[in-house]
Design a protein that fits this description.
With 157 residues, the chain is mostly beta strands. Helices cover 13% and strands 39% of the residues. A hairpin with a 2-residue loop joins strand 4 and strand 5.
Length: 157
């Protein structure tokens, strides 16, 4: 369970990029703002991370935009904690986990998709959209909006 805990912690590391991302969000010449369902990759040193839009199918896309809210609003509550990025709007981000894929700690990205032969990886056993799902005996990570549950387990290569 300790390894699964660091995966969730690694997702929180993404939050360190909030200040750098604020510059991306407030630049009027940067194109359209991110929309729910779009993915990105966040990487770099905690003091100077970078945010780049990416295809959700890209192995380097480690977060997904769950919701875009007003700067004063907060991300939904009642499940796992969202990573927040605030600029002219606030992005509520969740991990871009893919069912059957494995994830491991990465110095640059905090969390990255890895080969499932890696004994240190955590495997996404199930991704359930809609009503919350129980993942016993696996670790449950659920978000209310969009309603998605990730069932995580220690990888057994």
């Amino acid at each position: 369970m300790r390894k699964i805990g660091w995966v969730i912690g690694a997702v929180a590391v993404v939050a360190v990029g909030a200040y750098a991302y604020a510059f991306v969000m407030t630049g009027s010449d940067r194109g359209p703002r991110p929309q729910p369902g779009e993915c990105a990759r966040i990487e770099g040193r905690p003091e100077s991370p970078t945010y780049r839009a990416a295809s959700c199918a890209d192995d380097l896309a480690n977060v997904k935009v769950a919701k875009v809210v007003d700067a004063e609003a907060e991300c939904p509550r009642g499940g796992a904690q969202y990573t927040r990025f605030t600029g002219s709007t606030t992005l509520c981000l969740i991990p871009n986990f893919v069912e059957g894929a494995c994830y491991g700690r990465d110095e640059k990205a905090g969390l990255r998709k890895v080969d499932c032969t890696n004994a240190q990886a955590v495997k996404v056993v199930k991704v359930a959209h809609g009503a919350p799902t129980t993942c016993e005996p696996n670790r449950t990570v659920a978000y209310p909006e969009p309603s998605v549950t990730f069932c995580l387990a220690k990888n057994t290569p």
